[in-house]
């Protein structure tokens, strides 16, 4: 499936109350490259790495319905971050995980929680999956709260899981099951 077909299949815009999620398009890549190469974009706790523009374009071309990135936009169209879902390589099953980040001056305003709520609605509405998972550094309270407010439960600690700023850090694994999600918080229709 190429990008255009993917774009047609996924909602063009997943509409929330204060933010929308819009499937990332080629025009977003320069801004995305700028974001992901700035340490402050990933906050204090995430592993840092530099990603070249060709690498970003290659990843973008590999997007599928299984692995999609969305730009988080405010209602005035300003782009304030990204959220994505992807499947992990695992010998048994295909765990579906989400990742997200906001630009520093838009944090702490509820947008992160709303973006997580929207993507969880979208994933349970559009896929026959039983769970969505996320992992976060044990010190990352904002991320943990956003997950907990969406209904995620902490499953446990993955010890020395993330390599960040020269050391191995513990991370919490969180998940939300379909039966815990029950019904959409924000989205009410599927593509
Ligand atoms: C994690 C992140 C996406 C959360 O989004 P956000 O919009 O900042 O969070 P929200 O405003 O929705 O807040 C969620 C909760 O966390 C709390 N919170 C926000 N920032 C916090 C902080 N620095 N420390 C402790 N709690 C914090 C909020 O008060 C809110 O809880 P409340 O409703 O009980 O008051 C955002 O902070 C971010 O992009 N951080 C840097 C990148 C990152 O860490 N990504 C996640 C990797 S797992």
List the helices and strands and how they pair.
Blueprint: H1 3-9, E1 13-15, E2 19-23, H2 29-36, H3 53-61, E3 68-74, E4 79-87, E5 96-102, H4 111-126, E6 131-137, H5 141-150, E7 153-164, E8 167-177, H6 178-181
Antiparallel strand pairs: 1-2, 2-3, 3-4, 4-5, 6-8, 7-8
The protein binds coenzyme A (COA).
Describe the structure.
With 191 residues, the protein is an alpha+beta fold. It is built from 6 helices and 8 strands, in the order H-E-E-H-H-E-E-E-H-E-H-E-E-H. A 5-stranded antiparallel beta sheet has the order 1-2-3-4-5, with helices on one face. It has a 3-stranded antiparallel beta sheet with strand order 6-8-7. Helix 2 packs across helix 3 and helix 4 packs across helix 5. The two termini are 17 Å apart. The model has no long low-confidence stretch (mean pLDDT 91). It binds coenzyme A.
Spans of at least 5 consecutive residues with low confidence: none
Strand numbers in spatial order across the main sheet = 1-2-3-4-5
The assigned structural class equals alpha+beta
C-alpha Rg, in Å? Answer: 16 Å
Strand content: 25-35%
H and E string: HEEHHEEEHEHEEH
Please, what is the average pLDDT? 91
Helix percentage: 25-40%
Q: What are the bound molecules?
A: coenzyme A
The CA-CA distance between the termini, in Å, is: 17 Å
Largest sheet: 5 strands, antiparallel
Number of strands: 8
The gross shape turns out to be: globular
H/I helix tally: 6
């Amino acid at each position: 499936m190429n990008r255009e077909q993917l774009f047609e299949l996924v909602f063009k815009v997943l509409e929330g109350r204060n933010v929308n999620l819009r499937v990332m398009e080629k025009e977003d890549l320069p801004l995305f490259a700028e974001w992901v190469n700035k340490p402050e974009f990933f906050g204090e706790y995430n592993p840092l790495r530099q990603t070249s523009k060709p690498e970003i374009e290659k990843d973008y071309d590999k997007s599928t319905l299984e692995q999609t990135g969305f730009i988080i936009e405010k209602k005035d169209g300003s782009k304030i971050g990204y959220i994505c879902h992807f499947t992990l390589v695992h010998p048994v099953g295909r765990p579906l995980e989400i990742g997200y980040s906001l630009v520093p001056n838009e944090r702490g305003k509820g947008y992160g929680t709303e973006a997580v709520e929207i993507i969880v609605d979208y994933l349970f509405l559009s896929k026959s999956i039983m769970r969505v998972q996320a992992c976060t550094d044990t010190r990352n309270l904002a991320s943990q709260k956003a997950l907990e407010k969406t209904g995620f439960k902490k499953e446990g600690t993955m010890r020395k899981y993330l390599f960040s700023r020269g050391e191995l850090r513990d991370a919490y694994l969180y998940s939300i099951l379909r039966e815990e999600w029950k019904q959409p918080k924000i989205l009410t229709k599927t593509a």
